Amino acid sequence: MGRIVLENVQKTFGEAEVIPPLDLTIEDGEFAVFVGPSGCGKSTLLRLIAGLEEVTSGAIKIDGADVTQVPPSKRGLAMVFQSYALYPHMTVRKNIGFPLRMAKMEQAEIDAKVEQAASVLNLKDYLDRKPGQLSGGQRQRVAIGRAIVREPEAFLFDEPLSNLDAALRVGMRMEISELHNKLNTTMIYVTHDQVEAMTMANKIVVLQAGVIEQVGSPLELYRTPRNRFVAGFIGSPKMNFIDGDAAEKLGGHSVGIRPEHIDVVEGGLWQGRVGVAEHLGSDTFFHVHDTGLAETITVRAIGDVSLRHGDTIGLSPRMDELHRFDAKGLRI
Amino acid sequence: MAIVAQQTKLSKILWPVLAWAVALIIFFPIAYMVMTSFKTDADAVKPELLFTFTPTLENYANMTENYDYWRFASNSIITSVAATLFTLFVAIPCAYAMAFTPSRGTKDILMWMLSTKMLPAAAVLYPMIYMTKAAGLYDTHFLIIMVLSLINLPIVIWMLFTYFKDIPKDIIEAAKMDGVNTWGEVREVLIPLAWGGIASTALLCFIFCWNEAYWTVRLTTTEAATLSKLIEGNRAPEGLFFGRLSAVSTAAVGPIVVLGWFCQKQLVQGLTFGAVK
Amino acid sequence: MANRTVPRLLQTPAVVLLLFWMLVPLSMTLFFSFIRYVLNNLRRPEWTSPSIENWRGFGNYQYVWNQDSFWLAIQNSLIIVCGILFLTVAFGIAIAILINRNFPGRGIVRVMLISPFFVMPAVNAVLWINMLLDPVLGLQGIAVAGINDIISGLREAPLVGGFFSLWPEFSPISFRGAQASSYAVIMMVTWQWTPFAVLIFMTSLQSEDQQQKEAAVLDGASAWNQFRFLTLPHLGRPIAIVVMIQAIFHLSLYAEIEIVSRGSGNKNLPYYIGELVNNNIGAASATGIFAVILANIVAIFLLRMIGKTLME
Question: In angstroms, rounded to a whole number, what is the distance separating the alpha carbons of residues B94 and B109?
């Protein structure tokens, strides 16, 4: 069981209020991702849950029990750090077994659990090496192994993939998702990468300046962003925004439309000139200028469309996919 | 281009020669002392035997008889080892707390500790003599151990602090999450990780204790007198005993100089508080 | 939460010990400096033990202030410290640059250069004043005698004899007396601490940006200008640190002075106090307080200069 509830949690460092009072519930078994630009307070929020930082006011409850004053190790949580935080002087076996040894478990039982975790994570051949002799991905697995053996109520991940190269990152993403399916334990995952958030989460929490902008499933956030910030943050490439008179005509103070919701057609509603064209084969991205709507409109076309730099392009937005926002940036 | 190449060629020869010359000049007094220690007292003052002499071990053999060397040496060893251990015992927890849970006052405390090093020892000489005589501690091992610990404590804390600061905070936090208490953090994580730093700090602290020559001279007479006191007591300019004086001096500094060679790098990091890397 | 108390608790022993070390003896010194307190006085036996009855106010301070020897001691302290600082920094930079290149035997050169730093001060002083600087039996005496021998030999020689007969007989310098004793102390301490400066400057030089230097070469900077505008500024911080640490150590030089001159030469402040302690405790304590004030002036000056750079 791992239902985590934050009630009115607030954090200040001296004068600076990093996290204004907020409420949040993470249900048992959920994969929740905290996402936001760097410095938005997502890591601080995670560390508050872990107990590595003290809350200034408010309460944190795990399965109904108030753990606000409980030290980190007694909260039944396990954490995977960005730097992996492996103990460099211990072998992989000792690293994974360390929390169990600290819990004064029998050595035989520790060995069994370490073996089991190692086979789940494909680390069996490396158990007697030290972290310094492992690759980045392997170190990451050891860090996860150290978390798994404790059978925690919930796993906390603090940007665990940001030190890996792009290819490994995709692989580890899958592994962590699979792990979640297998264990069905609550996981809280912090990242600044919205792709990670979209691909892994059941529930995404978008944060900006310590404030929760929106909570919802990935597709909810994609389809109905609550405000302009969320709309711009979720989705890749970024949503196009149209301001001013052109937006008024479409029925909002500002209007957003995603690149994949604009079709390239001859004699479309909007006309422009192709700036940079990115031909990926499966898709083609056009950065279109001189539309009279915005500096640049990004468009995604399926397949290889043979328009080049300087060509005139006709665009047809799907009108039912427009996102309209009022002067405060809230969704209309 | 040709000029540049020529210059480099010339300096390629000149440079090492110059460097070696400087090194030899600087090392000469030590070499001279070691050399003299193998001469008889009579030979030691004869200019014609400066470099050509028949080496003898007589001075070393008679060290105990002439100077009671081992009594002073054992005092030096006892006080320096004990003071180093005690200093580390007090300094490690302190530096640990400062490095991993710094508060706003930490910087000020560190600066204040350093400033106690600047307190001129001479200013408190008489009170120290007065108090220790009153307490019956004058000329005891315990007193010398305490004083050596206190004068080295600030620098040892500083050095350890700079080493501990380099340990990623994540690892300590991971240990916290893994259910380690404070003592466990120190024993299971901090000491194994900072082992190199702690060892070289200990080595340096030991060297400073060994070489200390103010309190060990002024607060001892016979019982706890160290090698500094022994040498200081034989400062006489008679000169007839250069051989045996060199031998006892070589025996007093030899081990420490060799130890020092091993911790050059740490010396820089430690004494500059990590500010020069 | 126990978050704050545990770290405090861990720091407590060190802080308490240092606080005790700093406050208790110093406040006793402060007290003694305001009373008449003399160890041997047959005429006034009541002065031979510390008591508030013997209150003298600022009398001890006045007494010390009016002693020429006090001012001489201060002057000597400063001359010795400044002399050592200047020489070690200058030699340190020169030698560090000299060995900051790869050449055969660099490792051995380094080991030889660093060695004097680990020699115990007492041995250093005994070695220098007796075996190196003694006017008769030391190397100095031997060298001077040797030169005189050569010259007297040349006097007999044909042709040039007339020229050399005009030369005087050289006489060796005695470093045990008066002003020369300060020079002896400066010499031996410089010998001991130059390696320290070399070590620190060399470490710093190794972190110097080589591309910056190459850029300067392309910009047409001469070797001297490279040193003046790139290397010297780069060494600013290490120089400051070398100065601070040496100031801490050298303001309290004692053993060297004791061994070199046994008080017949020029004294520095710690040695002056050491002499007063043999009898006039009141005056010794007042001088001690002056020494503390002097150290504080230096300390404030130095810590201001360096304190900030140390923390990050």
Answer: 11
